Amino acid sequence: MTEKIVGLDNPELNQEANDIWDRIAGPWDEDFGPDGNQHNAYITDPVTDRLLDLKQGETVLDIACGAGRYARRTAEYGANVIGVDQSAEFLNLVRTNSKQTGVDIDFTLIPFSMACRLRRIAV
To answer: What is the mean pLDDT of residues 39-52?
Structure first.
């Protein structure tokens, strides 16, 4: 049986999703800020940090990196981070936010309808 991923073969649906994420990128970043919110600080960040147990020099692929909050955190731990997102607006924000914090992260725009490209990045 062949698995079908809904939306990958629908350019209009993909464009609509991209447009929505581009439209909400600014307000999303304003609401969460560069360091996230209390939910991130007390719940998701500690659990994710413990599960990943990152070591300096490890490589992290942050898929759907958004405004890059977690990509910046992992880079500050000394990880080599590759961030990908389908929203050009989110990537504009993430590049600005990353320059302000002084971390070096490779960010790439990849429409998630082209998810097969992620294999090339992760290898």
So the answer is: 90
Report the alpha-carbon distance of residue 95 to residue 90 in Å, rounded. Answer: 9
- Is 56 inside any structural domain? yes
Average pLDDT over residues 80-108: 88
Domain that holds residue 37: 11-122
- Whole-number Å distance between alpha carbons of 9 and 7: 5
Q: Output the 3-class SS for 68-94.
A: CHHHHHHHHCCCEEEEEECCHHHHHHH
Give a yes or no: residue 3 inside a domain: no
- Per the CB < 8 A criterion, the answer to whether 45 and 71 are in contact is no
CATH number at residue 54: 3.40.50.150
Q: What is the pLDDT of residue 1?
A: 46
